[in-house]
Structures are given as C-alpha cells and as structure tokens.
Amino acid sequence: MSSTGFTSPFGNANPFGSSGRSESGPMHRLVEEDENDTITSPTTPHFGVKNNTAPSFWNGFGGDAPSDMPVRRQPDDFPAHYNLGRRTSVSAESLKPVTDNSDNWSPPVHPKTAEQLERLKKAISGNFLFNHLEDDQSAQVLGALVEKPVPAKGIKVITQGDAGDYFYVVEKGRFEVYVNSTGALQPGPDGMGQKVGEIAEGGSFGELALMYNAPRAATVVSAEPQCTLWALDRVTFRRILMESTFSRRRMYESFLEEVPILKTLTPYERSKIADALESQKYPAGHEIILEGDPGHSFFLLEAGEAAAFKRGNDSPVKNYKKGDFFGELALLNDAPRAASVISQTEVKVARLGKNAFQRLLGPIESILRRTRYVEAEEVDPLQVS
Ligand SMILES: Nc1ncnc2c1ncn2[C@@H]1O[C@@H]2COP(=O)(O)O[C@H]2[C@H]1O
Fold first, then answer.
1. Predicted pLDDT at 363
2. Domain count, the chain
3. Based on the domain organization, do 287 and 226 belong to the same domain?
4. Interatomic CA distance for residues 61 and 225, integer angstroms
5. Most exposed: 80, 147, 155, 304, by fewest CB within 10 Å?
C-alpha cells in the first residue's frame, strides 16, 4: 500500500508499477523468445527494423534492454510507489498472427461490471486503433483492458526511458507528453524536458515502446486531478492491436512524408494521422465533395487528379495532384462546402474525419488557412493551379 494513501486496486499488477512483483501479474505471461526485431528509435523519421548492430541505441536508455541495464531511481515529485519496481528486462514476444493458436496463448480476462463495460466501450469508440478489429478480437481486447484510476494531477503514468509494459486509452481527463532530449527522464525540475503534446479523452498512448521493443519515448503525466485510464498489457497489445497499427503506419508513412502541408509535423504526429486515415478509390468523374453540403471530412489526394468547381462555372477553380489536400474550409469555418471536388482521373483519396482533423491537424491550422482561393468569376483557366 502506498504511503500517500493511494492504493492500487490491482495489487502488484498495477501497470504504473508497484513496490513488489507478483508472479501472477500480467507481466509474467510473457513468452521468452529471442530478440530478433531490434529497432531504431520510433520517433525518428525513418524508424523501422534494423539489423542487430546498433548497441549504442541501448546506451543511456532503460527499456527492454539486456538485463544489465541500470534501474533508474524514481524522482521525488510524484506519489510514492508509482512506477517503482517496473519490469526492466523482457524478451520479445512472439509476433505470430493472432489466428495462429498453436502456442495456446489466450488473453487475460478482467471481469467488468455492466457500467464499466459501457464506459470502456465509449472510451474506445473514437479510437482508431480499435476500429479495425474483428468481433472476436474486439471481445478479447475488451476483456483484457483494466481500469486504472489516476487520482491526482502530476502523476507520471509513463516515464521516458523505462521499459514498455502497458498501452493506455484515456477515458477521462487529460495527459501531457514531455520529451527529454537525452532519451530519459532526468532529475530536477526540468527533467521531463519539453512538452510535445497532450492526449485528451478517447486518445491513447504508450504504443511505441510495445510496438518497437524500445524504451519509452516520452514521459506522460496526468494534467487533471481525476483521470481514468484503461490499460492493455503488452502481450495482448502485440498479439491483437499491433499488426494493424503497424501496417497502417507503414502504409501511409512515405506518402505522408511527401505531403507538403504535413512537412512541419513530427514523425509521431504523422503516424497518428496514419492511424486515422481511411483510403478510398473513385473512378474519374466522381463527385467527392458536393458544393453546399455540410463538411464531415478532410481529404488528401494519394493518387490521380481532381479539380474543384463552383456552381455555374465550367472551368475548375483549382486543380489537385498527388499530395494535395482539399475539404478543409468547411471544417475550419464550420461552413457548407464552398465548391464541389470531382475526380478527373481514377483517384485514391485518404479521408480524415472531422474530429480527427480538428485534433490532429490543429498544429497546422494556420498553414491550412493560408491557402488562397479564387472566386469563380476571377478564374483564368490557364492560371488555375
Ligand atoms: N511527440 C511524441 N514523441 C514520442 N511519444 C509521444 C509523443 N506524443 C505522444 N507520445 C506518446 O507517449 C508515449 C510514451 O511511451 P511510448 O514510447 O511507449 O509511446 C509514446 C507515445 O504513445
């Protein structure tokens, strides 16, 4: 029990760490296997699988390093026993697809009340990482998630440099993300480093260390007094959620890097956009956006050509090629669609819903607003870009 009065309802299985270790805790369900997916830092622009010749990656980091890694002392500025005694060494789990049941793995089942289940379903409903699950996978994940109340502001749920143990979904409250350029939390008042982002209700964090077997890339701290998280253990995350998250991020990674409007975002911010995108193909002549309609989506053109038209004018007011965007005005201004956008060839578009647009493209709102649009009557067909 904590000397601060905060008692983990989950005993030693508390994913924020505890002073003891239980053999029955979820961490001990890990399958011991060879580490064969050494990685680069997940927050560098070209993260991905590398050969096993980069020992410097582990230097100065905690995380899933070989077992001789140092265990960092906890700083004094958070409730006692939070994050203490974290697992500091694990081997990689199997990356076999979930459908392969030959190793008899089954996810942990944490019983829930009807009220908890309802809150949990609502919390994950807006999270894109859960959108692509089959029904049985969804049921397994719902069973494996554990409720974690975070009773105070300023609690470090994740410490940069630590080993990754849980993935978190935010049901209630807000969390701040800090990165120290040394790669790990440092002592002292500025030890968390620079604030790089916030995670709101419905958002999630803690996937990077689990996906890449890397140390925690950031420190994540509660920003409000009464927050609620749902935690998913590492193995269930890797077995059920990781494959689709990986493949979506990979699929969009190089495309998003080449989209001019997204150039100022960090690789991590682009990966969150990748999680939220839905691709769609249309034949030539398809009305992707209809002038006057309410706006629900923002679009990036992945392939082909499209053009914008104003009613009563046969010439386009704007032409689009690969990497261009459209559909931002109605969302930025809460106004009806200002023009129709029609595919000129077969196209592939990546669609971002309104909520994701507001949440993920907030940092570049001023850049999005810079686009100049001509009115139909000013259009010189030879000048339209
Ligand atoms: N800019 C960022 N850089 C790194 N991690 C971030 C950033 N913003 C949010 N995060 C989250 O913070 C988490 C810290 O733990 P992980 O490295 O497992 O996963 C990280 C991400 O989920």
1. 84
2. 2
3. no
4. 30
5. 80
d(CA 299, CA 295): 11
φ and ψ at 138, to 5 degrees?
Answer: -60, -45
pLDDT value, residue 371: 87
Domain residues for 277?
A: 258-375
The alpha carbon of 192 and the centre of ligand 1 are apart by a number of angstroms equal to 13
What is the torsion angle, in degrees rounded to the nearest 10, for the CA atoms of residue 272, residue 273, residue 275 and residue 277? 170
Is the CB of residue 341 below 6 angstroms from any atom belonging to ligand 1? no
Confidence check: pLDDT of 264 > 70: yes
pLDDT digits (tens, 9 = 90+) for 70-79: 333 333 333 3
**CB distance 220 to ligand 1 below 6 Å:** yes
Q: What is the CATH number of the domain that holds 274?
A: 2.60.120.10
Residue 354 lies in a domain: yes
- The pair phi, psi for residue 156, each rounded to 5°, is -85, 105
List, for residues 25-40, the tens digit of each pLDDT value: 333 333 333 333 444 4
Ligand 1 atom index nearest CA of 216: 17
Q: Answer whether 275 contacts ligand 1 (Cβ < 6 A).
A: no
Among 319, 307, 311, smallest CA distance to 292 is for 311
Whether 162 is covered by a domain: the verdict is yes
Domain termination site, one of 237, 268, 292? 237
Q: Annotation-wise, does 346 bind a ligand?
A: no
Q: What is the pLDDT of residues 44-59, one digit of tens each?
A: 544 433 333 322 222 2
227 and 140 inside one domain:
yes
Percent of the chain residues topping a pLDDT of 70: 71
- Beta strands 297-303 and 347-353 are antiparallel
Residue 207 is assigned to a ligand binding site: yes
Shared-domain flag, residues 326 and 357: yes
Same domain, residue pair 175 and 207: yes
The answer to whether position 347 is within a domain reads yes
* Centre of ligand 1 from the C-alpha of residue 303, in Å: 30
Output the pLDDT for position 140. Answer: 96
Domain annotation covers residue 94: no
